[in-house]
Amino acid sequence: MVKISVQEADFNLQAEYDRLRTTSSGAIVTFTGLVRDFDDHNDSHSGSVEGLYLQHYPGMTERLLAAIVDEAEQQWPIQDVCIIHRVGQLLPGDQIVLVAVSSAHREAAFAAASFLMDYLKTRATFWKKTFSASGEQWLEMKESDRAAAARWQMDGGDKQE
Predict the structure, then answer these.
(1) What are phi and psi of 60, to 5 degrees?
(2) Cα–Cα distance for residue pair 60/65, rounded to 1 Å
(3) Centroid of chain to Cα 82
(4) Which residues share a beta bridge with 48?
(5) Which CATH class, in words, describes the domain spanning 3-141?
(6) If pLDDT is split at 50, 70 and 90, which confidence band does 148 have?
(7) Mode of pairing for the β-strands spanning 3-7 and 78-86
(8) I want to staple 122 with a disulfide (CB 3.0 to 4.6 A). Which of 10, 36, 84, 149 is the partner?
(9) pLDDT computed for residue 157 by the predictor
(10) CB under 8 Å to 6, separation ≥6 — which residues?
């Protein structure tokens, strides 16, 4: 069963992995995003990050994440998915996001997990603000995230292997 959660509380990576693990699973791919202690979004606000604040559009965010999972399920033979994204105040080293995919084969699990993360970064309604000694700043989407998501649209939307 697909799990999608937007929450303030931290998550337990081992518990989520164990939930995805079945006797028919040949692969489980996980990605865990962490808060970095630096900002690389632009040159004017680079430096040490003391905290990160994330907010989202409740209801809409979960629907968008479910739609992204549906797209992945149409392209790859995946068995189960877990997406957990945290919101609220976070500190460097804190877990922000978990994307985990189980499949009978590793190729599908790797591709689907990558697709889900790329689309999560560009389609889901999350807003991020960093806090540092020089102030606070709302972050814009990075061009590298747009480019990563765009690669899934090449050749008429064919899946990438």
Answers:
(1) -65, -45
(2) 9
(3) 10
(4) 38
(5) alpha beta
(6) confident
(7) parallel
(8) 149
(9) 44
(10) 56, 58, 61, 62, 65, 84, 85, 86, 87
pLDDT digits (tens, 9 = 90+) for 95-130: 999 999 999 999 999 999 999 999 998 888 899 999
How much of the chain exceeds pLDDT 70, in percent?
Answer: 89
**Domains of the chain, residue spans:** 3-141
For 38-49, the DSSP string reads EE-S-GGG-EE-
Instruction: Note whether 98 and 82 are within 8 A (CB).
Output: yes
**What does each C-alpha distance from 113 to 8, 48, 71 come to in angstroms?**
22, 30, 12
Q: Is residue 53 very low, low, confident or very high in pLDDT (cuts 50, 70, 90)?
A: very high
- Provide CB contacts within 8 A for 39, sequence distance 6+: 45, 46, 47, 49, 130, 132, 137, 139
**Cα separation of 7 and 88, whole Å?**
8
